[in-house]
Amino acid sequence: MYLEIITPEKKLFSGETELVQLPGTIGSFEILLNHAPIVSTLTEGKIKVEEAGGSFAYFDIKGGVVEALNNNIIVLVDSSGL
Q1: I need a surface site. Which of 15, 37, 60, 73 has the fewest CB within 10 A?
Q2: What is the pLDDT of residue 52?
Q3: What pTM did the predictor assign?
Q4: Is 2.60.15.10 the CATH classification of the domain at 2-81?
């Protein structure tokens, strides 16, 4: 899957991933390969990214939105939380 995490000022992450865990408004959820299309709001919390090589990255956010479609994930986050 290809993931981009973007703020209004800069791109925080872009690259291939195995798993993305997100703080959804009604609870945490994960996106894996071939996930059904989804658009969701995000709340304050931590995004966990498992990169294709097996390493992990974490990003603290104040909120945002995510769209996943055809193994492409775009996360737009509020930069005030960074």
Answers
A1: 37
A2: 81
A3: 0.90
A4: yes
